[in-house]
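Box 4.2: Ligand-aware structure prediction
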Amino acid sequence: MASQEKIISFPHMGNYHIAIEFLIRHVLENIQVLTPPPITKKTLELGAKHSPDFVCVPFKYNLGNYLEALDGGANLLVQSGGGCRFGYYGEIQEQILRDLGYDFEFISIIDNENVNPLAFFSRFKRLNPQLSFARFAYYFYLTFKMIEAMDTIDATIRANIGFAVQEGSFEKLQKEFLQKLPSVNGFRSLDRIYRHYHALFRQLEVNKPANPIRVGIVGELYTLMEPFSSCFIEKELAKKGIQVTRFITVSYLLRHHPKSSDLLKWAGKYLEYEIGADGTDSVARAKMLAEAGYDGVIHIKPFGCTPEVNSMPMMQNISNDYKMPVLYFSFDAQTSETGVHTRLEAFHDMLMMRREANTWQNVI
Ligand code: SF4
């Protein structure tokens, strides 16, 4: 790539681009940052058009984000790493983009073998030789606390949004909260914003029954955290007056993730060995949700996601033993939103009937 001003970009996942952009702006001051346009059907169509058919759908979304970012002027792309085969996808995406004629640099900031602040620092330092470790550590931790604040507020929203008295009140306040984050200039200012909005969220009027229908969502991390990729499943459940619980968030994965030995202990007789990526988590959490008396579990995954396919028989056993319905969804580029909504509707009706008649059945 000829010498020119560097413009860095990265793939989307939920609202986390706010935190990523915040970190880049403060530690790579020598580089411009360009957040790709929000994901739309066009993003997915673009990504799917240039992806091998068989790859899991997060690859297609990421490729769509890269293409839109390159077309918007980016020339330095951050490869998204991750467990499972996603860790190898960067090389294929790079080759596809080069074959399409794009001129860019492709860098990996996440080393799958080495997820720690020092490894992150050495990668950022390569991009900004002036960067001191003290500055990096400060903003890295501040960004992590920002992500934690976003995740905590999200959990409050998830638990209450289905019961909002004023339609759109949670969405409106969340938008306002997210807009404030880029102006954070230290831990105190982050804490002020977080406390202020957390209190405001708790003051929003809700009409929540004492024993609402509760559904847990488990599965693969990208489809859990990028709402577009699951046809906005959490929003759909909220519209039906369901309280939603989800464990996997970025702060959970970075800091609060249980040890695999604990997950296996929680999964009990249903799982003896780790099954990779988020599969072990899905089984352990499904059992915990069943024991906590949840009305149902929704398991979501990209089509062909091996670790999550492996977790399904164990979840079915949990479903049978605890008489708790589990609804399974696979998402790909062709998933029909109408089909998803119809199945959710049926699942909801069944949960309501079970509440009334205290009967149960599984949905596959
Ligand atoms: S966890 Fe699933 S979606 Fe992610 S890379 Fe592995 S197979 Fe693909």
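In the box above, the bound molecule is iron/sulfur cluster. The mean pLDDT is 93.
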